[in-house]
Design brief:
Elements: H1 14-24, H2 32-56, E1 69-74, H3 82-95, E2 100-104, E3 116-120, E4 123-124, H4 128-131, H5 133-141, E5 147-149, H6 153-163, E6 168-172, E7 184-190, E8 218-222, H7 229-242, E9 248-260, E10 265-266, E11 275-280, H8 285-294, E12 298-303, H9 312-324, E13 329-333, H10 334-337, E14 349-360, H11 362-381
Parallel strand pairs: 1-6, 1-7, 2-5, 2-6, 7-8, 8-9, 11-12, 11-13, 13-14
Antiparallel strand pairs: 3-4, 3-5, 9-10, 9-14
Length: 382
């Protein structure tokens, strides 16, 4: 195995790399960059307050979607595991005899001017470039659960109501979608990321102040198994102080399957002791890599920006890094796999999927199902 440094691939825009470097640096002494971001953060706070006040004071009314909607959102930038939570809720609602559908904004999709139906109860309807990676992956993994995308989420929900038998919608990343009312707002917080020392964007990763969690109906803690007991206790204490009345659900993300890009299933135990190149273009690559390590793999990370659109040069670069580090397997996430190009690989390539497990708060999830059932029953009787 070569001992030379790992060849890296960082195609993130310069401003993004600069911002990440500034907010990640220890706050030792004065800094012009931190001062600039703090000033911009103040302006962001004013804009956020003004936006919320418009609806809070009744100057503008929220639109009501034609189907009851459950939002799964974040308080922070970066991945907290929303996609896996949406999958979990879609399956739970289906098991309860309800007919869920999913709506996303469709980030970086080719056609973003109008809402689009990605799949219906029969299967996929359009390509990954037209759908966006997350929407396509969800549609591909959830048989008979329709998926739609659109900048105006209420229009995408109307599309689902008109063209599918959907009864309830799961809105991916909807906590900051203020213009539309929701039946339930679920906010996810990552147990491995401290909220106590986070600052408001762009001086930090907070989309909204911690106090805004009061708008949520439930707070779900994700990746609890990847946090230390100290981190988890600190987060519990913080939430108990900030939003004592909000129910909490505690979850973990578990690897559920390992398969080739052609769909051939392998055994997760094959990861134990294997040296793998973990390739990801997601919001929280650390969690993906930690899951592989928990499965016993020796991980060599290769990270791309979130929602990265892979091209032939990327595929060649991945091959070069794999050879350079003499890995036994290349693994990627399901979100990345739908965008990977076909080529002859020199080592086995596998897609890793994960699922959500609830370790605390099952009764709160049952309450979500019952609240939806009540709403659907009333609508059916009207």
């Amino acid at each position: 195995m070569s001992t030379a440094p790992l060849p890296t691939q960082d195609s993130a825009p310069f401003l993004h790399r600069w911002w990440h470097r500034v907010i990640s640096a220890p706050p030792n002494g004065p800094s012009i960059s931190r001062g600039l971001l703090s000033a911009l953060s103040g302006l962001y706070r004013l804009g956020l307050k003004a936006n919320l006040a418009i609806y809070g004071w009744g100057l503008k009314s929220q639109t009501d979607p034609v189907l009851p909607t459950i939002s799964v959102g974040n308080l922070t930038l970066g991945g907290t595991g929303k996609t896996t939570v949406v999958q979990f809720l879609a399956r739970r609602l289906s098991q309860a005899g309800l007919r869920p559908a999913i709506v996303l904004r469709g980030y970086r999709r080719a056609s973003h001017s109008v809402p689009a139906l990605i799949s219906d109860e029969q299967g996929l309807l359009i390509s990954v470039s037209e759908a966006g990676d997350e929407a396509y992956m969800l549609a591909n993994s959830l048989a008979a659960v329709p998926v739609a995308v659109g900048k105006r989420r209420e229009a995408a929900i109307k599309l689902l109501a008109d063209q599918t038998p959907a009864q309830v919608v799961l809105l991916d990343d909807g906590f900051q979608y203020f213009r539309m009312s929701k039946l339930i707002d679920i906010v996810l917080v990552d147990a491995t990321q401290s909220l106590a020392d986070q600052r408001l964007f762009p001086a930090g990763r907070l989309r909204e102040p911690l106090s805004h969690l009061r708008r949520a109906e439930q707070v779900w803690i994700t990746h609890a198994d990847q946090a230390t007991s100290g981190q988890l206790d600190a987060l519990r204490d913080l939430l108990a102080t900030a939003v004592p009345a909000i129910p909490r659900v505690v979850t973990i993300h578990q690897l559920s399957s390992l398969s080739s890009l052609a769909g051939e299933t392998a055994i997760l135990k094959e990861l134990a002791g294997a040296r793998v190149l973990a390739v990801s273009g997601i919001g929280n690559p650390q969690s993906f890599e930690a899951s592989l390590q928990q499965a016993g793999a020796q991980v060599v990370p290769l990270r791309y920006p979130d929602h990265h659109a892979y091209n032939p040069a990327d595929m060649q670069h991945i091959q070069q890094v794999a050879r350079h580090h003499d890995v036994e397997m290349i693994v990627c996430t399901s979100k990345d796999a739908v965008k990977w190009l076909q080529m002859d690989w020199s080592v086995p390539v596998a897609e890793v999927s994960c699922q959500l497990s609830v370790i605390e708060g099952e009764s709160h999830i049952n309450r979500i199902v019952e609240k939806v059932r009540e709403k659907v029953t009333v609508a059916d009787n009207d």
